[in-house]
Amino acid sequence: MRYVYPAVFHLAKDGISVEFPDLSGCLPCADNVEEALRNAKEAMQLHLYAMKKDGDKIPTPTPIENIKILKNERVMLIKS
After folding, report:
1. pLDDT 10s digits, 22-73
2. With 0-12 CB in 10 A as exposed, 13-18 as middle and 19+ as buried, what is 11?
3. Per-residue CA distances from 6 to 44, 55, 57 (Å)
4. What gap in Å lies between CA 18 and CA 21, rounded to an integer?
5. With 90 as the cut, is the pLDDT of residue 1 above it?
6. Alpha carbon 55 to its chain's center
7. What are phi and psi of 6, to 5 degrees?
8. pTM of the complete model
9. For labelling alongside 38, which of 2, 46, 59, 74 has CA 20 to 30 A away?
10. Sheet architecture: strand order including 73-79
11. How far apart are CA 63 and CA 53, in angstroms?
12. Sign of CA dihedral 19, 23, 27, 28
């Protein structure tokens, strides 16, 4: 099954942290955008795998237009 979830990329001087509004506790980070995209995809896949294995309900992705961001943040859709 394929999944697509929005991720908020927080850009800071010391790196990039990523938060998935719909996947509590899924918080990858990286030194650059390319690495952040890779890490976000891998973290999302592992998080969803663990949720399925535990029998947790897979949440419906939040529409991207409903996500509020700060000046130094960007929203990207991550596909598994």
Report:
1. 999 999 999 999 999 999 999 999 999 999 999 999 999 999 999 999 999 9
2. middle
3. 10, 22, 18
4. 10
5. no
6. 21
7. -75, 145
8. 0.93
9. 59
10. 29-30, 15-19, 4-12, 73-79
11. 26
12. negative
Q: Tokens 């991550």 identify what position?
A: 78
CA dist., res. 72 & res. 43, Å (int): 22
CB-based contacts of 12, cutoff 8 Å, min separation 6:
72
Report how far residue 30's alpha carbon sits from residue 63's, in angstroms, rounded to the nearest whole number.
25
For residue 13, the one-letter residue type is K
Spatial neighbors of 51 by CB under 8 A, at least 6 apart, are 57, 58
Which tokens sit at 24?
């509590």
